[in-house]
User: Fold this.
Amino acid sequence: MKTVDKMEILHSQTAEFIAQGEVGKFLKLIPDTFIIKGSEQENGYNQGYAIRHINRKDILLIDVVDKEMQNAIKHLVDDGYTIKGIVLSNSSVYKSAYANLKTISEDAGGAPIFAHPRNSIKDDYQIKDITGKQEITKHFGIKIYDLPGDGGGSILIYSDINDGMLFTGEDAIGSNYNETENTFSRPTMENKNSEFGLAESWGAFDEDFTYLFPLHGKPGFNLEDGQQTDILNKLSRIQS
Assistant:
């Protein structure tokens, strides 16, 4: 059995490793968890993620629909992986999608696409409700948290593997890759009720997480209890 290269894992858990990685290619961050960089944004990139099942055959993709990610999706299928689903954390992810959802599903070997039913995604493809009872959440051991979102439904995706991983979509934004700090903030929202609702949701979140993976900005690695508390306090704070 191949042993895990601890130095390789430690090296991969840095913003520098991600920033230097090639756009449109999956980069291994921690066991069975990968990041992929898409088009460049103001504070970094559109970022998607992949969770590999313990059977090392099935894959769950999170926000992997950016135009820079198309070939990577096809390569997973060509390499023999079964993409069991693609989850969209919010409607803004769809705006950067490289094609309509039917085409993306076909590129992913016919994988179903999941999202919050309140999302303002206008597409003829029949999106599956990720907040409902879905086999895929049980298969990958994930929990879905419904957040207010800005102009539509938004979700957090929590996994208890690797001592807790939290995929935040746009509901927490990481620091710019060019900055030395590594903090997280809420997105700017036009609707004050949505802003208060999102802050309240963060204040009620009580899962332990060692890793925080946002749609934009630097991820958080090896977060201890005090760091988790600080992040949640900041995300739930309302500026006067």
Observations:
- Residues 168 and 214 are 5 Å apart (CA to CA).
- The radius of gyration is 17 Å.
- The domain at 6-236 is CATH 3.60.15.10 (Metallo-beta-lactamase; Chain A).
